[in-house]
């Protein structure tokens, strides 16, 4: 006796395990979207912080340069004041200063 193979069409779409699997995939997909949005918000925030730090760094470097220039001016001014004080009174009077 020969066996006949009969193709049986099974509706896999409505199988319970397929339905559960699709449900979990949809939930996971939704969670992934939420996490991606949160990551994008963090990236945007970090970018903002980076820009602020860059601006502050530039301002600090500029302030540091100004302080150095002022220190040089003060040192130069002190040297010229000392030079005036160190010159004898007669030469200051003769030159018109003092």
UniProtKB/TrEMBL annotation:
Q: Which regions are flagged for Basic and acidic residues bias?
A: 76-85
Residue span of region Disordered = 73-98
Q: Where is the composition biased (Polar residues)?
A: 87-98
Q: Which domain of life is it from?
A: Eukaryota
Specify the protein name.
Answer: Uncharacterized protein
Question: What is the scientific name of the source organism?
Answer: Phytophthora oleae
Q: What is the lineage of its organism?
A: Eukaryota, Sar, Stramenopiles, Oomycota, Peronosporomycetes
């Amino acid at each position: 006796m020969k066996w006949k193979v009969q193709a049986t069409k099974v509706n896999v779409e409505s199988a319970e395990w397929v339905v559960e699997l699709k449900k979990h995939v949809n939930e996971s997909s939704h969670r992934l979207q939420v996490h991606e949005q949160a990551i994008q918000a963090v990236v945007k925030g970090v970018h903002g912080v980076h820009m602020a730090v860059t601006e502050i760094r530039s301002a600090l470097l500029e302030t540091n340069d100004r302080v150095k220039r002022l220190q040089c001016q003060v040192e130069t001014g002190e040297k010229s004041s000392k030079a005036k004080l160190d010159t004898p009174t007669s030469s200051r009077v003769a030159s018109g200063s003092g």
